[in-house]
């Protein structure tokens, strides 16, 4: 990272150049990257605003755009977008409240996005819109509700309803999961991940013998 800064009249601006950013160094399951771009930070009495753009082309095709405002009591995610090949895109808008548990809410939109473009994840082509909310502290917890449309999972068509809670590190509370993959259908209700949890599954898989 390299950059320069300007400060005057209780206002400031920092320009940062990003070179060879490796996402794998942030989380081991993410793709090894060498992203280049810039981050501009504007500061005044009300808070800071961060606008960033990084990208890589060639063997890895990825671009990340972000526009985030930060005040003493709120983090405003005006845009966080990850793009892949062609029109593939995953975007998030939302807010994080800077209180004890850091509650958040937002909207996640996915357009023909392959999770494998991010790293060690299943081959897919996902589309849909989801409402997300939860708490970051003391243990990350997220509610997700929405519809998967015109998607593919492991080379089979996929669509359906998702309404569940994920609680780190690995607990799922499924209020309603009803998804079809090809000719197979999965329905799930209940919880899995803690002692005493019960998850009810209904699987119809006519292609399995």
Tell me about this structure.
The protein is mostly beta strands and 209 residues long. The chain contains no helices and 14 strands. It has a 14-stranded antiparallel sheet with strand order 1-2-3-4-5-6-7-8-9-10-11-12-13-14, with no helix packed on it. Strand 1 (2-8) and strand 2 (11-21) form a beta hairpin. The mean pLDDT is 91.
Report the biggest beta sheet as strand number plus sense, adding barrel if it closes: 14 strands, antiparallel
Question: What percentage of residues falls in helices of 4 or more residues?
Answer: under 10%
| N-to-C series of helices and strands | EEEEEEEEEEEEEE
Shape: globular
Overall number of strands: 14
Strand content: over 45%
Search tags:
single chain, 209 residues, mainly beta, 14-stranded antiparallel β-sheet, 14 strands, globular
Secondary structure blueprint with pairings:
Elements: E1 2-8, E2 11-21, E3 35-44, E4 47-56, E5 62-70, E6 74-83, E7 89-97, E8 103-113, E9 124-135, E10 141-153, E11 156-167, E12 171-181, E13 184-192, E14 199-204
Antiparallel strand pairs: 1-2, 2-3, 3-4, 4-5, 5-6, 6-7, 7-8, 8-9, 9-10, 10-11, 11-12, 12-13, 13-14
In short:
This protein has strands at 2-8, 11-21, 35-44, 47-56, 62-70, 74-83, 89-97, 103-113, 124-135, 141-153, 156-167, 171-181, 184-192, 199-204. By secondary structure, the protein is mainly β.
